[in-house]
Amino acid sequence: MSTKSIPTVFKDTPSTSTSLIHQPPPTGSQQRNAFYHRHAKLIQYLKGLAIRVATMVVVLGVLIGIGLGLMYTEGLPASETFSNLAFDWKVDPKSYLLPFNQSFEYNVLLDGHSHSTYSDGKMNIRQLLDWHIANGYNAVIVSDHNTVEGGLAAEKLALAEYNETIVVIPAMEYSCCRIHMNFIDINQTIPEGPPVPTDEELRQVIDQVHSLGGLVIVNHIPWSNTTEDYYQDARLPNHPSVNDLISWGVDGFEIVHQDVLDYPTLQVTQTHNLVQMTGTDVHHPSVGANVWLTVNVTKMDRQSIMQEIRNRHTSFLLDPAGTRQRSYSDSQPRSYNRLLPLTALGGYFSMFYTDYKGMYSFHGTFCHPERLIVHGDLVGWFIFWVLVGLLMFEIVRGLCLFLMDFIHRKRHINHQDYRQEIF
């Protein structure tokens, strides 16, 4: 039997090298998929980082907006309350002070300049009267900014309830960007006029006070002419000269303001026989009394005191250190503390700029040109430290994830070993 050879059938199978040569190149999507596959963890981290950075930027923006917005919002709870003030002392300045004119006899101790809540004072009229009585006064001129209403209300209260313990003389402090003057012994408010009145407008308002029977006293010239911070200009720019004021008909000057004796102006009043006035300019109960105008009257009332002042029969006591006893506001109210974590943000973020406005005009404006200065270096350092904080957060986060992964793997290995021991 012959053996026939069986033909071998060969299937065309390309070699590996041939397969690589003829394989089509990967498409763009395949390349991207391959890249994403190789860098999946890095891409996932970068996405998470972007979300965290965006969240941080949004949160910071919201906090800055809330903080600065609240800082310029009116009507928020005040940081101080004055409802429970106590003036449980009685100073007798006569027991340790002599008048400037040592032979001067007196029975009236008057404060010629004070403020209540009818303007920018912190004490209501009752508290204002009690503060003065505690500090040895038996007469006070209540002179709120650009209104006589506080003085009239205080006089009414004193006549009704204080039984001649203290005499109130109504007044108003005419306040503008050029000058502050007390209009004393009037019963109606003088229109305040423009924030920067002309010389002629000032002369007219002085004449108007005289027509009402009032006294015009120029207040605190040293305070008005001192340099306003960051402006190299007077606190009240273009303040009229003493000679101009005398020619316009003012009746006198405040020669002692708080603890400052204005000796040059004192000499002027002596030379021209003008009224010499003194005043504490008290706004807040936490200050002491420094000066008392001394007057001697036969009858303790408004008219008698004013007559002696007009006759220039006055002297004064001066205590530069001020009376020892003080009264302070109540603790911060809950309504204020409730918002403090947010309102404090305004103070923090306001470090990025300084908004200079100068002296307030008491007309809703300011006496100096506004200057807004952005502190770019502080903005840059803030961003730098935010980035440092973000880097520290990422490091701590990475360590925490690593430890969690390590603990998870350790538990998994221990679990596998335990299963092998059982089976």
TrEMBL record:
InterPro entries: PHP_domain, Pol/His_phosphatase_N, Pol/histidinol_Pase-like. The chain crosses the membrane at residues 49-72, 378-404. Residues 110-178 form the Polymerase/histidinol phosphatase N-terminal domain. Keywords: Membrane, Transmembrane, Transmembrane helix. It comes from the Eukaryota. Residues 1-29 are annotated as: Disordered. GO terms for molecular function: 5'-3' DNA exonuclease activity; 5'-3' RNA exonuclease activity. The keyword Membrane applies. SUPFAM superfamilies: PHP domain-like. This is Polymerase/histidinol phosphatase N-terminal domain-containing protein.
